[in-house]
Amino acid sequence: MNRPLVSIGIPVYNVEPYIKKCLLSVLNQTYPYMEVLVVDDCGTDDSIKIVEALALSHPKGSMIKVIRQPRNKGVGEARNTAIDNAQGKYLYFIDSDDFIEPGTIEMLVREGEANGTDAVLASSRKLVYDTNKEVPTFTFASREVLTGKDVFANYLCQDLRWHVGINAWNILFRLDFLQKNDLRFAARKDEDALFLSDFYSEIERAVLLPDITYNYVLRPGSIMGNQARDHIPTAEIRERFATDAIMTERCARLEGRSFYDVHCARVMKHKFRAACVALRHRHRFTEPLPDREIRQEMKHPASLSAILKFRRYCLLHLFFYSISKLPPSLSVFTIYVAGKLMRWI
């Protein structure tokens, strides 16, 4: 097997209790040819001191390269910094509060080299911090090799179920694939969903693996736990809506592709869920969220004439399109009723 260099991108921001386990899981990989790009996103705890101590004490500590952001920019920009500084043939992202299995990189590189992939995607598990209780999550049922233009996109868009996870971690990307397609992360909330929406249509060779290689840690204070707060800044849901607006605009580039109808349906499902989240937590926002902003979230990426030509999910598209055209109060009422029926509210 060829032994190409793999760049590991790890954004770090206030993860002092977790970073050592994360970094050790990388340094103790069976695959020897790595550079570990730790992107310091200007946290206020001792995370980077722990990183620097491991760089000095661990036998493979020389792999670690700390890159300091000029200011806190968020996880999306930290990942962009990793892309800009990576020297490897491949780039693999891991979040700094998670950890990977010892043979992860070796397995992914073996598949990447054997199949000339743009990306190798493996399965993961979710673990509750402190208890290590496993929470059900997305896994691939079997190994799949997907080759050809739009083959991966059509696999993902075969229906509205999740056929890949919404995440950037645990994917071995070929670095020149990211560079050639100018694939970047948005500096905003929900950047993983937007990144997935951008990159999956460009993949021409991919391998999917049922092997669990990544451990996603559900921890107190993580983004996943923010909904437990008594008060949620309204700016957060507005930032989510703004990200979704970008995703909506970018749908136009896929018009005419075989999966365009399902892609639009998936985007609208994602946006509808966001609208339901807004309604579910509306009473806890720090300032009022007007009905018109929630209705705007439901803006459809396609025109009515285009929707009428869709082969799949035409009625669902018409439902979403109609919501965006109703008066704001009626639009929100319709979302609320539908969300209740679907148990999303």
Q: What can you see in these coordinates?
A:
With 345 residues, the chain is an alpha/beta fold. Helices cover 40% and strands 17% of the residues. It has 13 helices and 10 strands. It has helices at 19-27, 47-57, 75-85, 104-115, 151-156, 175-180, 191-199, 234-250, 260-280, 291-297, 304-307, 314-325, 328-341; strands spanning 6-12, 34-40, 64-68, 90-93, 99-100, 119-128, 134-135, 144-147, 171-174, 205-218. Strands 1, 2, 3, 4, 5, 6, 7, 8, 9 and 10 form a 10-stranded mixed β-sheet that branches. Strand 1, helix 1 and strand 2 (34-40) form a beta-alpha-beta unit. Helix 8 (234-250) packs antiparallel against helix 9. The model has no long low-confidence stretch (mean pLDDT 94).
Quick tags:
345 residues; alpha/beta; ten-stranded mixed β-sheet; 13 helices; globular
Short description:
With 345 residues, this protein is of the alpha/beta class. 40% of the residues lie in helices and 17% in strands.
Number of strands: 10
Work out the helix count: 13
The share of residues in helices is: 40-55%
Q: What proportion of the residues form beta strands (DSSP E)?
A: 15-25%
- Alpha-carbon distance between the two ends: 51 Å
Spatial shape: globular
Cα Rg: 21 Å
The main pleated sheet reads as: 10 strands, mixed
Q: Whole-number average pLDDT? A: 94
